[in-house]
Amino acid sequence: MIDAERRDIIARLQRELPELRPALRRAAKFILDHPNEIGLLPIRDAAAQARVSPNTLVRLGQWLGYPTYDHLRQPFREALKQGVHAISSQARWLQQLGQGEGFAPLYAQMASASVSNLRRTFSENDPRKLEQAALELAQARQAYVLGSRSSYSLAHYFFYVGRMAMPNLNLAPRHVSAPFDDLALVGDRDVVLALSYAPYAKDTLQACEYAKSRGARLIAITDSVAAPLAYLADPVFVVPTQSPQYFASAVAIMALLETLLAFVVAQGGQDTLDTIATFEKVREEMAVYWNEAERSRGRN
Length: 300
Known about the structure:
Blueprint: H1 2-16, H2 22-33, H3 35-40, H4 43-50, H5 54-64, H6 69-97, H7 104-124, H8 127-139, E1 143-147, H9 152-162, E2 169-172, H10 179-182, E3 191-196, H11 202-213, E4 217-222, E5 236-238, H12 251-285, H13 292-299
Parallel strand pairs: 1-2, 1-3, 3-4, 4-5
Helix pairs in contact: 1-6, 2-5, 6-7, 7-12, 8-12, 9-12
């Protein structure tokens, strides 16, 4: 019941976010992006991190039907309590990591961020929606994986590995083109998987708007329910990218992409396995990978 209430709050904030005034929008976005912190932080700390006044959080709670900030955060606190026993041993492990010398504290910070991002990714996304997304990608006339700037390497990885199971898979953009070039012929029998996290690449957003205008199905993996793509795509998979460093963490995005690929293969049956086997056979015949025979020849 408590978790359902928390989900209802998040769903309403996501739905109403564009209509809120700037200060309330910042407060709402903080809750959407940091639901665990809302359950932990007192009002002044939460307001400081959200860059709003404490009164703004109170007003947001009242707008949602909660008389005080404490009433607003209660569903988030209860959700944390339900999972506290599962993560207590993990917390002790992370504390021990940070007790060494040199870069040990930084090592622990990076581990903590990665573990937190992964836990949220797999607990807050619906595997049934991921299964449906895998089916739509596999059955599309043409499937595209789209990513620009820092998302491009992730898109390229998905294309490189996914192409073995999905001959219909295309990468956008390719090395010497813009996203529009590769999506020029997209249509209503096609599916676009778009990757985008802050700072959001404008050309990715524009390409998605174009693909949607052409009737293509749009699936998004992004870092916030308040991200630009969250209002264009369906379904949207939200994957946190929080990091103690200046760069966003891609660990959880990569994990979700690998899970999506696993779902594609699991659904594909023997035909998919045969396609993968064909790729492997060609690579074996062309001797593209090093093996022990190479070592033997080098010794002669």
